[in-house]
Amino acid sequence: MLFWHYQPENYHQHSPPSCLRDAMTPFYKHDGIQPLAGNDAKIPPFQYMLYAATSPAVKTHEETLTYLNQGQSYEIRMLNRKLVEYTDISSKCVKSIVRVLFHDRRLQYTEHQQLEGWRWSRPGDRLLDIDIPLSVGILEPQAHPMQLNTIEFLWDPVKNASVFVQVHCISTEFTPRKHGGEKGVPFRIQIDTFTQNESGEYLEHVHSSSCQVKVFKPKGADRKLKTDREKIEKRSLQDREKYQPSYETTLLTECSPWPDIPRVSSTTSTPSPANHSSPPPCSVTDGNCSPNQQGELFLPSCSDHLLPSCSPQDTQVWLHRHRFSPFCRLFSRFSGADLLKMSKEDFIQICGPADGIRLYNATKGRCIQPRLTVYVRQQHPKHAGGDVYHALYLEDLTLQELTEKIANLYRISPKQISQVYRQSRTGIHVLVSDEMIQNFTEEMCFVINPLKDKNSNGFSVVLM
Q1: CA atoms within 13 A on the CB side of 428
Q2: Residue 261, φ and ψ in degrees, nearest 5
Q3: Which of 107, 119, 186, 181 is nearest to 149 (CA)?
Q4: At how many degrees (to 10) do helices 312-321 and 291-298 cross?
């Protein structure tokens, strides 16, 4: 099953029955905490209330929908519903992270591209911001400059707190422009709350809630809400019973925590929470990988198929190996089974026609040919006069990639190769550059002559 984030655990369930809804009405209309019911073990520790009215034009079996005005400050009140059980952290703060996310699965797949496109079209703006002067009881509010849809802050669970947020992106900005008057896409406002671990870091997840919203241009939400009410009032009493009543405030419902995207760096890879037992794969520039590991990363093979049993980490390595690195972030939570279940149309919609078809063919086991193949022979005292050549498959056509391939051949770290030269016909040594590699012809042959550096433990390599 494909991993669709942002989806509340009760997304497909009916909102609270009328009997429970009536019991919850005081909480919607007043500022107090919702009274605890008989079995309070199932009641979440925190409750979040968005002070914006829900739409009356939502059927009873659907999730509530709330309209917001672009740039307007809306209060989110945070309540601790199990204060007694939190006596062990009464002297500490918790961290809450608020995000504005896409509700539609189609946009979830392409979230990174959508947000990057918005960033370029609205330079200097944020999708989500915090109105600090209006907020009460929050500490260390932060809005990361590179995470335009995220804010975070600390607050004391013993003391109720309120944060005022502003959503600057409108729903129609992410709708394909066709004939005008397109329906805007819904967003989700999600809050994830964490407590401190033994190291003092806020990494212990305790609660997540979200709600569905649509954002309109200034005063557009008020007009839309008024229109919805007028439409419902014109319906018969029997038809009205099919729709939810409108509440003055919006209660965020429990959902799964927002999945952090694994960051693949040059020295380590972050293991996915979905599979803690799998060791993190070596990254493509990791000098600490064993030669066998590096060989597995770099040498393409027609038998190197994506298997349903591949973990998200294995899938990331497979994507890197087959030249799909630009899409690794999009598929960071996908296992091999997830990708194999996707259709050609799914790939085209997410990756575009060219890359989508290429990725679809790759998942079906069609071998992807390297961009350039060169043959090299090692010049070594033990192999003097030998005529055995090794194939190096180049995909990025860079000096860094060639250096890594040669280092793998000699079973050393790429960091030990200080320079790579090519010997010209006149015998001079010319520094190899990316541009030179891009002008190599297919199946060129070289003899590799490693020269020991006098001032270090490294080598210079000459392609003869």
Answers
A1: 3
A2: -80, 125
A3: 119
A4: 70
Question: What confidence tens digit (pLDDT) does each residue in 309-342 have?
Answer: 788 888 888 888 887 888 888 888 888 888 888 8
Contact 458, 417 (CB under 8 A): yes
What is the reported pTM? 0.50
- What are the CA-CA distances from residue 167 to residues 100, 127, 187, 250 (Å)? 8, 6, 10, 16
Find the angle CA(273)-CA(277)-CA(279) to the nearest 5 degrees. 95
- Helices marked H in 17-148: 18-29, 105-109, 111-121
Amino acid at 395: E
Domains and CATH numbers, the chain: 18-254 (2.60.40), 260-369 (1.10.150.50), 372-463 (3.10.20)
Q: Is 351 exposed, middle or buried (0-12, 13-18, 19+ CB in 10 A)?
A: buried
d(CA 102, CA 343): 22
Read off the tokens for 284.
């493509």
Q: What's the average model confidence in pLDDT over 412-439?
A: 88
Residue ranges of E strands in 31-123: 46-50, 65-69, 74-80, 94-102
